[in-house]
Each structure stands twice: as C-alpha cells, then as structure tokens.
Target: methylmalonyl-CoA epimerase
Amino acid sequence: MIGKLNHVAIVVPDLEKATALYRDTLGATVSAPVDQPAHGVTVVFVELPNTKIELLYPLGDASPVGKFLASNPSGGIHHVCYEVPDILAARDKLKAEGARVLGDGEPRIGAHDKPVLFLHPKDFLGTLVELEQA
Model:
C-alpha cells in the first residue's frame, strides 16, 4: 500500500541554525522559510536526491509542534511521511484493520498542496505517520 518515503519531519528549536546546518555543513539545497498558518508551522524544505527533510518550527502559540518542542527542547524527529496512490482507499483499509486516523479522519491539504492524513503513533511503533497522496 505505501509507496516511497516522501519526507522526514524534524522539529527544531532554532530554524535559522537548523537551516544553516543542512545548507552550509551538509551541503543540501534548502528553501527559504515558508509559513504554513493552516498547520501552525514554519517549514524549511531540504531537498535530497531520494527524499526530503522538513524542518518544522512553531508558528504561533497554538502550534501543534509547540508541545513537542516543549517536551523535546533540542528538537527531534516528529513524523515520517509515506506516499500512497489513493489516500481514501488507504484510510479505509487502515481503519478496517484497527488503525486510528487522527482528527476527523478526512484528508486535508498538506504543506505540499496534496491530501494528507496522520495516523496515531501508538498504532505504528511509537511513530507519528503521515500519508500523502502521490
């Protein structure tokens, strides 16, 4: 059902330092910071030959990654994102097998302007999983 790894999202306490680390130290191509108000984050996209890294920083006090950062002051991996060809079929199959879809269970448009869903980490080895329609 799942396709390729689309990205790994890392919450960071200092977006400028994290961007410089990937750009200057590791030599990656990075985007300018992009505010995503609908998701409560500012994102820097790190392009790699085979996938992407998303550096996430809280945007506002109600940011969903703010709580993560409060518990993990140094930051860390927040979620992994896998591509699926049909997000509704994937959702229905996973729900039928007992997996919990976060939120209202309906896809919403993610940072890459494609439908996404998040799956409960307790159902996936302690890892928050995002599915993105390819």
Summary: The chain has a mean pLDDT of 96. DSSP finds three helices and nine strands in the chain.
